[in-house]
Structure formats: structure tokens, C-alpha cells
Amino acid sequence: MLVKLAKWLDLIKTELKEDPKILIYDQEKEVTFFLEEILEPYKVEIISVERLEFSKEDLFQLVVLVGRGGEDLSFLLNKVREFYEESKVCVVLNFLKEEDIARYFDLGADEVVFKPFTINELKARLAKLFKEYYLDKKIKRFLIEDPLTGVYNRRFFEEKLREEAYKALRQRHPLSLMMLDLDNFKWYNDNLGHQEGDALLKLVGETLLNSVRAGVDLVFRYGGDEFVILLPYTTKEQAVQVAERIKKNWEIYNIPNVKISIGIAQLEDKGDLEKSIENMLATADALMYSEKKANKNLI
Known about the structure:
The protein is α/β, with parallel strands linked by helices and about 300 residues long. It has 2 domains: about 1-145, 3-Layer(aba) Sandwich (Rossmann fold); about 155-299, Reverse transcriptase/Diguanylate cyclase domain (Alpha-Beta Plaits, 2-Layer Sandwich), CATH 3.30.70. Helices cover about 50% and strands about 20% of the residues. It has helices at about 1-15, 30-40, 75-85, 100-105, 120-145, 155-170, 185-190, 195-210, 235-250, 275-299, and strands at about 20-25, 45-50, 60-65, 90-95, 110-115, 175-180, 220-225, 225-230, 260-265. The chain has a 5-stranded parallel β-sheet, sandwiched between helices. It has a 4-stranded antiparallel β-sheet with strand order 7-8-6-9, with helices on both faces. The longest helix has 26 residues, at about 120-145. One of its GO terms (cellular component) is plasma membrane.
């Protein structure tokens, strides 16, 4: 069972690029002790608290709620589900014949464990929960990510664009959009082959991700060799600085005749969400093609 547990923890680290982390509400610390003993070889961070404080900034693969006596964990479970939507949740209860565990599953628990339990049982439950977390994340990424470049796909862009634009207009904070296109990509792809072309697109994706704020800015593949970046809380002037950083980072690779053309626009309130979005897209697109034309004249 330890082999299976190690496998899923390793996949979370290597493929999801996440550091395994557990939040446990445990007033008596008994379950905390067992978790620390089981997970110590795998460098899993365990945060054990007697009072839960919630923050959407935190990322936990697993949240464990340990009931004391006949404690009702319904309220805490509701809050955990509100703040940690992606986390797997395990409820640990004292064995009571009259306990209705169905309500915990109805409230969003992924597993219910009764005390007393064996170490092997706890290991098996942990392996199952980390496996489910990993698979859920992989499926979600498959749906929203571009498999070649590792950035988000166009379908997810259309969803996030409306979400971020609505939020920016309502809360009156700036939102900028950047459209990017590779100059001479067709020539590069036709002459060096599709494999080299794919490698180049992957390199663009890496460059863009390394040039923006992780967890804030959103990078998408718009189609072919076109990319889009959404920059929340960013003015056009600030976005220009990001664009300069992208170009500087791209120039490091010194790829002959392959430049990145960029058009930038800031969201303006046109009295209607769709009109505001259309205006921002059209402005960025026009500026990108203007720069692309200028770059061709320089080659």
C-alpha cells in the first residue's frame, strides 16, 4: 500500500507541479500523529489546527476533519467545500451506531473513516484520496489546457475572458489583454518540419508562462501560432512592460527571423459586456497585425 501511496504523491509533485499539503482539524492530535508517521518519508506538509481559518489563497490536496465525541462537523464541512473546492475531504468520526454518515457524503465529503482504525486502513484511504485528487486534476487540465504548449486552450479563454471582464467592470479595476503572433512561423514549420515547429510552439508557451505573474495572469493558445494573455489588475502601460519582458526573454533563444508581434488593449466600458469585450479584442488584434507588418518590413 505504501508503494501506491508513494506513486500518487510522486505524480502530484512531478506532473501537477504541486507540493503535497494536508490541512487537518484535530483537537486531540491523535490522527495527526498517525498521519505524520505515515507521510514523514514523503515530505508531505501537514498543518494541524484546533480552529480552522479559511483562505482561498491556500492549496491543500487533502483536508481532514476529525470529530471529537459526537461532534457535528457539518458546518466545518460546508466551509471547507466553499473555500477548498478542489481538495479531497476526509471526515474521521468515533464509531456510533446511530451516526448517519450519508449526510457527510451529501455535504461533499469524499471519505469517512471511523475510529478506531488500523494504520493499514489509513494508508489505503490516503492512497485512494491522493489518487482521486490527481486524476480529477488531470481530467480538468485535459479539458482546459492545450496539450502541445501546456498553456490554457481557446475554449477556456472564452470562458475566462467573460468572467474577468465582468469582474473588472463591476469592481472597476483595470484588465488588459495581449494578443501575440509568431512572425514567419509558417516558413519555419514548412522548411524545418512539423516536429521542429511543435518544439518552437512549446518554447513560446514556456517563454510566456515564465514572463507573467504565476497564479494571476492567464496564458492561452488562441489557435495555430497565436496566443493570448489576460492581465487582471493591469493597465495598458503596465502591460507594455510585460510585453517588453516577453520579447527580451524570447530574444535569448536567437531564432533567426522568428519574432513575436504583440498587440495590447485595456478593457473599456462600452455600456455592455459583449461590446466592451469585442472592442478590446478588436483593438489588440489590429495592433498586433500592425506590428507584424512592421516586423516583416524589417526582415
